[in-house]
Amino acid sequence: MRRFLEIAMTVVLWSALAAYLFVAARYCREQNADRICKELNITILHTAFPGLVTPEFVRGVVAGAGLQPVGMPVEAIDLAAVERAIAARPNIRRVRAYASLDNLLNIEVEPRDPVARVQTDDGHRFYLSDDGWALPVREGFPIEVPIVTGKPALPVEPDFFGKIPQNNSPESVFLLYNLFNFVKFLRDDSFWSSQIVQIVVNEANEVDLVPRVGRGIVKLGPLGAEGEGGEGYEKKLAKLYKFYTRGLNYEGWDKYGVIDIRYRGQVVCTE
Fold first, then answer.
1. What is the pLDDT of residues 232-267, one digit of tens each?
2. Number of H helices, E strands in the chain
3. Bridge partners of 73?
4. Cβ distance 220 to 231 under 8 Å?
């Protein structure tokens, strides 16, 4: 008899809980039906370049996709559609949209950060992001990153924006591995991130560097872990740094017009 009563009480309790959850869910749905979205609350997260992607830009993307959440019932807003519209832009890394109890549609956006601006002779104009995407350039909003110019053989068309494809072509290896790693190396070094303002690439994918201080164009040669001269760019820049600090500090930073560091153990200068 006692076992029967225990089972009966358990059934009653679970039935009561199920009834409560059903009523609570129905109440929430009815309450949500009366909640109207009153505003977009947009937050830009984790970027080294505030202002490159703005709340106004995000609002424009949402409106341009034909989505008008303000004034709609909160439960009728297609949050997934809002996220898809924003995430489709190449300069957006991540996005999250959710409604809050104060009837706001909250949109959190994390932009991609550029590590270089590519501006080549054949018409390529884009930012190279820190995860290998080609991003549109926002004119009138300059940012402090090196500019890549000249005639690099790039694996994308001049009007391409998006994830730069990776394949086995020499062009992709140069852009996505050598050049990409090189500009990140410059960015992560406090001296070189300030000193190197332009990277000039010729048809053979050899590199000259334009410094911020001094008139000497630096002939770096091919990029890669080890160049043809047996030194990678890390070692080449290390010996250039020694030359700067131990030589030009005494002779003057404008003494030489060309500083050639392409060859192992050598710094060759011409006026």
1. 899 999 999 998 988 887 778 888 899 999 988 899
2. 8, 13
3. 36
4. no
For 65-217, where are the alpha helices, taking DSSP H only? 79-87, 170-172, 180-187, 192-195
Cβ count within 10 A of residue 257: 12
Q: Is the pLDDT of residue 227 over 50?
A: no
CB 129, CB 136: distance < 8 Å: no
Say how many Å lie between the first and final Cα of the chain, rounded. 107
* Beta bridge pairs of residue 41: 106
**What predicted TM-score, i.e. pTM, was given to this entire model?**
0.79
Where are the alpha helices (H) located in 101-218, listed in sequence order?
170-172, 180-187, 192-195
HSE-up (13 A, CA, CB side) for residue 132: 14
Structure token pair of residue 41: 């609350």
- Dist CA 194 CA 199 (whole Å): 13
Cα 168 from Cα 176, distance rounded (Å): 11
The model's pLDDT over 74-93, given as tens digits with 9 standing for 90+, comes to 999 999 999 999 999 999 99
Strand (E) or helix (H) holding 27:
helix 2-33
CA 173 – CA 181 distance, rounded (Å) = 11
Q: Which domains does the chain have, with CATH numbers?
A: 39-111 (3.10.20.310), 114-270 (3.40.50.11690)
* HSE-up of residue 185 (Cα within 13 Å, Cβ side): 16
The neighbour count for residue 242, using CB atoms within 10 Å, is 11
Per-residue confidence at 12, pLDDT binned at 50, 70, 90? low
- Which pair of tokens denotes residue 201? 């690439």
